[in-house]
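Comment thread on ticket #2218

A.B. wrote:
> Attaching the input chain for the structure job we discussed in standup.
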Amino acid sequence: MEDLIYLDNAATAWPKPENVYRFMDQFYRKTGVNPGRSGFDMAIEAGNIIEDLRVRLTKFFGGDEDSPERLCFNYNATDALNLIIFGLLTKGDHVISTNLEHNSVIRPINHLVRDYGVEATYVPFDKLGFVDPAEIEKAIKPNTKLVIVNHGSNVIGTIQPADEIGAICKKHDIPFAIDSSQTAGVVPINMREMNIDVLAFTGHKSLLGSTGIGGMCVRKHLDIRQTRAGGTGVRSAYPYHLPEYPWRMEYGTPNMVGIASLWAGQDYIDETGMDNIYSHEIKLAEKLVAGLKQIDGVNIYCADSMEKHLSTISINIDGLDAGNVGIMLDVDYNIATRTGLQCAPLVHQQMGTLDMHGTCRFGIGAFNTEVHIDAAINAVAEIVAFVKERAVKTK
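C.D. wrote:
> Ran it. Output below, let me know if you need it in another format.
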């Protein structure tokens, strides 16, 4: 494991900063109790970190700083997106999304279409991997009740113009939601300036926290219908789930060690600087793309420019299944990547890679180095040479 070159950070950031590991361990040992459910000191301390983190993340996302209770913790972005989508749409409504979405958006929408009569429009992206905001506006109908967009593609890494889409939604008085799974922690987001009404986030990617924690930030003018009910530890005699935020969108005992990881992840981002993290990752992505472009037989998707781009690069090698590329990188070179459809089938359908079993994706993270990128380029070059040699021998 010590020699592993980990290039699957678009799935989960690894390793985490050392301060995240330490803080999670220390916090859980000292304060690993149910927060706010009792009046003893440990429970109060556990409750305090939750409330302080609500304030901190609300500011981080540019939410309504006078309403930090609208920063709600869920299991991950998928959990938050389900609550958002099922809580904002009902029979007869129309939703606009894009071909860049993850299944955490596609599948809830498709269930609503199939089971509840909701209409859906998926807007395609252009040859560079970007959605034209004008196409979003063209898709608006009188019954459009939600526009939801993947801020950064987990397949091709393009960052969508959320501010322009948000302005269109505001003009038409339609709630605008973004999936920030790939961008939160590496790209600045200001919900107020970008007219984002609700944002879903996950903790285990560029926010540098653990798995099993995520949530949403909801602007104070938007209310999401409750679709679950359960314990809150507050006003237990009330016969229904509490309508107030954050309990409106939170259910049961929270993931306290996950919340601790997010706190420590914020410390690392603040100390290192989000701009510095991004510039480091994008510099490595540029190096990777430049190197791969020199290898005849490598197809790189939507990475002609690193402007408005994440450090996520997808490729295919002529004559080789994407899955086999990943296996060879892993077994022969100890390089971890992600192969397949990356839970985003519409991207591959539009790019023509669906029948090719997707792509091999390189996800560069904060702790990758130029040595890692050189190794990846050399490995791909050797795999291409092997494929060509094999093709000659089989003629």
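A.B. wrote:
> Thanks. Noting for the ticket: The CA atoms of residues 20 and 264 lie 5 Å apart.
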